[in-house]
Write a structure and sequence with these properties.
The protein is mostly helical. Helix content is 58%, strand content 0%. It is built from 4 helices and no strands.
Length: 89
């Protein structure tokens, strides 16, 4: 187990705070500005957000199947002569 410095521990606490609030439905952008407006360093908040994104991307499931693409041919509508379109014939 490696020993974390004060700054590393601080960033870890910010990371966990962000992850908790993401689960509550807040966006990364809103959390970022809320933390900056509360007096946290912008650089440390950005580092914490990068760490959150990395951790969440590692937790995301890897899709084993590719999506199936289907094609459907849509027939063109019948073209009526101009006089039938005008007179409604």
């Amino acid at each position: 187990m490696k020993k974390m410095g004060k700054k590393e521990d601080y960033i870890q606490k910010l990371t966990e705070y962000i992850k908790r609030n993401l689960k509550k439905g807040y966006t990364l952008e809103s959390l970022k500005w809320a933390l900056v407006n509360q007096g946290h360093s912008r650089m440390e908040v950005v580092k914490a957000i990068e760490r959150v994104e990395t951790e969440l991307s590692q937790e995301a499931p890897v899709l084993q199947t590719k999506p199936e693409i289907t094609y459907e041919v849509i027939p063109e509508p019948e073209k009526k002569p101009w006089y039938k379109r005008i007179f409604g014939l």
